[in-house]
Design goal:
alpha+beta; Immunoglobulin-like; Zincin-like; Neutral Protease, domain 2; eight-stranded mixed beta sheet; five-stranded mixed beta sheet; 21 strands; about 25% strand; globular
């Protein structure tokens, strides 16, 4: 009887050996952190052990020198140098250090905050969680917080388990230059299921009283508004931190999108403001709208501009703004951006940064409107900006990579089978400091009177497009 060829068996053995080697490589970069929380003293005690230590750990935090103390390798003191902790490469052992949150400076640690939040601490992730020199997408990190009963932890990571005295997360890969926050203290953590997404809401109240149902309803309404743009909220799971602070201006004086370790939003909210003031505020709609696009840190005009456009359009879609008010707010923004661009401007919209704030925000918003109108005209209404962003959310809202405006617009062109976005980028964004919008508004039937009020002309050539933008 002829002997069967061993090629299949050899192939199997080859694959099996490579799987073992791959598994070993991944396992070799699996880090486990244990963090003991001392909420009274606003301190974390961190320990991580290695079978084979990396060359060093590092951070981009400016706070490291102030707040990282008692660094030890195998219980022997070592030092950090300019954000680096050198380790004995490939040696087994444990690293420990303490993080003193009371030493933080800046907007999250001042007299007012310490009076209202004596036992709550907010830290940038890079302040306390340093990364190994070979940190990349194959690195797996598990972190466990040990804390007293009644103490909660809020983080953007994937929750593994939460118990009375222990909370464990898996930390997915994201670039170390991104920003993210954790919080620990005596506050409530709620899970909201809204618009096919899970919102992990932490209400960090300190010694302030508050109406929980009011805050929950506000978050639900704002996520539902943005969900109207993209046919469902664009992110499956998100951390939301609501930090209550009396004596601040407005209902929501500050909001910030964070992406380090996973998607999150941080809000400062004045608990003395009414529920209606919360609902009328644009901040949450703006911040949640950032997640309609991939992260484009080098093209802030795109991120801020599209969010500024959709903070109004999204609220109109769910009836929080009427059509006239929506266009009044957009037109007022367009004019602020134009006025700023005439005084302190970037030579081209593409280069607008933080110091060109209004030019960046509202110039980008004009581009969003131009894209919405052009797309409907070119495709005879088959595509809108909303439908294009909905399809973008299915493929491209990754949590671990950065995009450029050019890449984003190329993908939107591919989705819509047009060149609307690339034409706007090449002919307007790269060539003008601020896009023209007067004729665009006139054709939409948006006419401003001498007293600043606007009227809507339903006989205008593009009035049906205007209505579709508002109604979806």
């Amino acid at each position: 009887m002829p002997i069967k060829t061993p090629s299949i068996s050899m192939k199997f053995i080859f694959v099996f050996i490579n799987l073992i080697l791959f598994s070993f490589t991944v396992y070799a970069k699996k880090d486990n952190y244990t963090v003991k929380v001392d909420h009274i003293n606003k301190t974390l005690h961190v320990e991580t052990c290695f079978k084979k230590a990396p060359d060093y750990l590092h951070t981009i935090s400016d706070n490291a020198e102030k707040i990282i103390k008692n660094i030890k390798w195998q219980k022997s003191p070592i030092r950090q140098y300019n954000g680096y902790i050198n380790l004995p490469n490939n040696k087994s052992g444990c690293l420990s250090y303490s993080v003193d949150g009371s030493k933080l400076t800046g907007r999250l640690n001042n007299k007012k905050i310490n009076q209202q939040h004596p036992k709550d601490t907010i830290l940038e992730i890079s302040d306390f969680l340093w990364k190994r020199n070979d940190y990349d997408q194959s690195t797996e990190i598990i972190i466990t917080f040990i804390h007293d009963n009644g103490i909660n932890v809020s983080a953007p990571w994937s929750l593994i388990s939460r118990h009375d005295q222990k909370t464990t997360y898996h930390i997915p890969y994201t670039p170390v230059t991104w920003v993210g926050y954790i919080g620990f203290g005596e506050f409530d953590v709620l899970q909201l299921n809204t618009s096919n997404s899970k919102i992990n809401l932490a209400i960090i109240n300190g010694n302030n009283t508050y109406n929980q149902s009011s805050l929950v309803d506000w978050i639900k309404q704002m996520t539902a508004a943005v969900a109207e743009i993209s046919n469902g909220f664009p992110i499956n799971e998100m951390q939301v931190m609501v930090y209550l602070l009396k004596g601040t201006s407005g209902a929501v004086p500050w909001g910030q999108v964070n992406r380090y370790g996973g998607p999150g939003v941080f809000f400062v909210v004045n608990p003395d403001r009414s529920h209606q003031e919360l609902i009328n505020d644009w901040t949450a709609a703006h911040e949640f709208s950032h997640f309609l696009l991939p992260y484009t840190p080098d093209d802030r005009w795109l991120a801020e501009g599209f969010a500024s456009y959709h903070q109004n359009i999204s609220r109109a879609r769910v009836g929080l703004l009427d059509e006239k008010s929506t266009w009044e707010k957009l037109l007022a923004g367009f004019k602020r951006g134009k006025k700023t661009a005439n005084k302190n401007y970037a030579p081209k919209l593409k280069y607008a940064k933080g110091r060109n704030r209004m030019q960046m925000y509202w110039g980008g918003a004009v581009i969003a409107l131009k894209a919405d109108v052009a797309l409907q005209k070119v495709t005879n209404g088959r595509h809108t900006l909303s439908s294009a962003l909905a399809q973008l959310s299915y493929c491209c809202l990754t949590t671990s990579s950065e995009w450029t405006a050019s890449e984003t617009f190329s993908r939107l062109d591919k989705i819509t089978n047009t060149d609307v976005f690339s034409n706007l980028y090449e002919q307007v964004v790269k060539k003008s400091s601020y896009p023209n919008y007067q004729e665009l508004l006139k054709d939409l039937g948006i006419i401003q009177k001498y007293d600043g009020q606007i009227i809507l002309d339903d006989a205008a050539i593009n009035a049906p497009i205007r209505k579709k933008i508002i109604n979806g």
